[in-house]
Amino acid sequence: MLDFAGRFAASFFNMPFHWVLSLLIFATCLLTGLAFVSFSQKNNPIALPYGLAVLICAGWCVISIFEIHAETLEQRVFLLHLRATILPWLPLLILETIYRFVYGRKLLIGWIALAFATVPIVNITLAWSSWHSLWRYGFHLQRNGEYTALLFHDGPWMILYAIWAYFVEFGMVIIAIVSLRHMSPWSKKAMCLILFSIFPPAVMDVLFLLGKSPTPGLNYAPVTFAFSGLFSAWAILSHGMMTLAPVARSLLMEHIPDLILVVDHQNCLVDLNISASHTLNISLNKALGRPLREILNTQTSLLEVMEKNREAGIYEIDLNITEKKRFYDLSLIPVPENSKTPLAYVLLLRDVTLHHDAKLLMQEAKESAESTAEAKGRFLALMSHEIRTPLNGVIGFTELLHQTSLSSEQHEYVELIEKSGESLLVIINDILDYSKIDAGFLEVHSEAFSLVSLIDRVCRFMAPSSMANNLKFDWNIDYFLPDAVDGDEIRIGQILTNLIGNAIKFTSEGYVKLEVIPHSATTANSDPSIDFVVTDTGIGMSKETVSHLFEAFTQADSSTARQFGGTGLGLAVSQRLAGLMKGKITVSSTLGKGSVFTLNLPLKKAIDMKEVDGEKIPHGVMEGDGAKLSILVVEDNAINRRVMENLLKKIGHSVELAADGNDGLRHFKDGSYDLIFMDIEMPGIDGFETVKRLREIEKTLPGHPRIPVIALTAHAMSGYEQQCLDAGMDGYLTKPIRIEELKRMLGGIKVGRKA
What we know:
By secondary structure, the protein is an alpha+beta fold. Helix content is 52%, strand content 17%. A hairpin with a 2-residue loop joins strand 1 (136-144) and strand 2 (147-154). The N and C termini lie far apart (127 Å).
C-alpha cells in the first residue's frame, strides 16, 4: 500500500490525467466539508440525508482516484464492488433530501423505506456473492490510449437497477420542479442550485452508460462533483438551505397550535402535524392512507365540509373533543393551488372557540341591551304619558280659573297653584330629558331659525322672574352675528332658560345679564361659533363645587336644595344637550361674588331663509285666517276632555267630545268638523288606528274636504312627532296644553282642503 501511495505521489504531476485527479481531490475535500457542515445541523430535517448523500459522493471520488492508479484486474474489480456498495443509496438519499426540503417531513419511513431499500440490498448482495454474473461479468482490462479501462458485461440485474435508479432520479426532479411554483423566492433559489448540482453528474453518468464518455471506460460523473459541490455550498451558505427554510418549515409544521392535515383527492390521509395528532387522537403510522370517514367518523361537521366542498375557502366547523364541542375555522387549500384537478388538499384548522363564545356572549349582551333599552323606552314613554296627563288637568284648569272673577285671596292661591304646576313640569321635564339622554333616545334636530327671535322670546319669558326678585336683567346680541343660523332652536332655548333661571334663582341682589357674542376663535370665513354668556352677582361657588357642578343630582350642598329647591338635574341635562349639539358649557365662579356660565355652540349660517322670515307656526301646521271652527276632541280621559272643551270654548270655537276612537269615528260620520284633536293613547283602537280609518272613510266621500287632525298626546319622546305626522296627522301638541299655545295652533289652521 505504501509503495502504491508512493508511486501515486511520484507520478501525479507526470500523468496525462493530472487535471482529472486535481478535480477529484478538490471535489473530495469540498464534499467532505459539506458533509460535516450538514451533520452539525442536528435539528434540521434534511441534514442527515443530505450529509450522507454528499459523503457517498466524496467516497465515489476517492474510489475513482484509486481506480485511475490501480494496475491489476483484481484491484479494479475490488474498487468496482466498493462503488456498487455505496452508490445505490445515493438516489434514495437525494430523493429524501428534496422531499424533506419541499414538504418538511420524512418520506422513507416504514414499508416505503423497506420497499425502496430492496434494490440497493439486492445490488450489494449480487456484487459480493457468487451470483455476481447476474450483476456484471467478463471483467478484463483494455488499454485505451493513455488510460487503462476496466471492461465488463452487464447482467440482467444491472438493466433493472439502471431503470430503478433513473426512475428515482426522475421522480425527485419532478417533485422539485413542481414545488418551485409554491416556494418563497429564497427557497426557490436554494432548490434551483440543488437541481443544478444534480444535473452534471447525471449527464456524465448517462454518457458513460451509453458508451459516449470522452475517455472510453472512464466515468466523469465524480469529476463533475467539483462543480456540483460548489452549487451545493452556494445553496447552504448563501441561501440558508440548512438554516432557514427546512428548519422553519419543520418548526412551523410541528409546533404550530393549529391542526394541519393533508389528504389526497380521495380524502385519504397523507400527513398531519403533532397538534392534529394529539387533538384528534390520530396516529400517523396507523392512519396513513386511510379515508377520513374511517379515521374521524364522529366528526360529522368536518366530514360534511370535505365531502361537499372542493374549492379553496374558509369554513366554520365544530369538533367533538373530550366530550366538549369546540369550534374551528377550516381553511381548505388545494395542492397545487389554482388547479382545476388538485392532487391533494391541506386542511388548516384554527381553534376559534373563545372567539365563538365571546361572539355569542356579545350577541346575547347586545340583545339584552336592546331589550333593556326598548323596555326603558317604553317605560319613559309611559311615565311621560301618565305624569303629563293629570298635570294637563292641573295647569289647564288653573289657566281657566285665572280668567274667572276671583277675589285677591283666590287670585293669590291660583297663582301659587300655577307656579307649583310649572315647577313640577320643569322637574318632570328634567327627569325625562336626563333619562332619555342616558338611554340614547333624545336627538337634536338642526333647522334654520332666527337667533334674535329666540333670544328675545327666552328673555321676555324670564323677565317676570327677575322682576319678582328685584333684579336688573339685561340681554345683548353682538351686531356682527348672523341672525339666521342652523341649529336646534328648542334645545338651545331650553339650555338658556335653565342657565338664566338658575342665575335668577341664586341671585338675591344685583343683576343677571345675557350676552350673545362670537367665540374668540371664530374667523370671518368660518361658520360662527357662538358664546351665550350668562353672568350674575349671586351666591357664587367654590372650586370644589364647580368641579362637580354638571354631575346629575348635584347641588352646592344640602342647604342649597332646602333654600332654593330643585333636583340638581338641570345643569346635567343642559351640559348633555350641549354635547349632543357638539358644544359645551363652561363656568367660572367666585364664592360670594357671582358666576359666569358660557354656552358655546358651533352654529352654521342658515342657507334657507324662508323659515326665519317671521315667527314660525308651531309644529308645522298650515297657515290660516283664525276663523271660528267646529272642533271634535277625541280624548279618553274625562278631565282632559273637560280641559280641552273649556279652553276651546273660551277661545270662541264650538266643540264636540268623543270618549274613544270608535266614538270619534261615529261623530266624524254623523257630523261636519273643521278640525279634530286626537289623543293617541286610548283603549280599544288608539289614535294612530283611528286616523288611519278616518282617512280611509274620507276617500269614499268624493268632494269631502280633508279634515286636519292634530295629535294631542302626553308623549314627549324623540321621534314621536314625526311618527304622528307619518300616520296622517297634520300637527302635534304635547300635554300639558297652554291656552296661548293653543291659540297659535288654531290661528294657523286652514280648513276646506280637498282630500
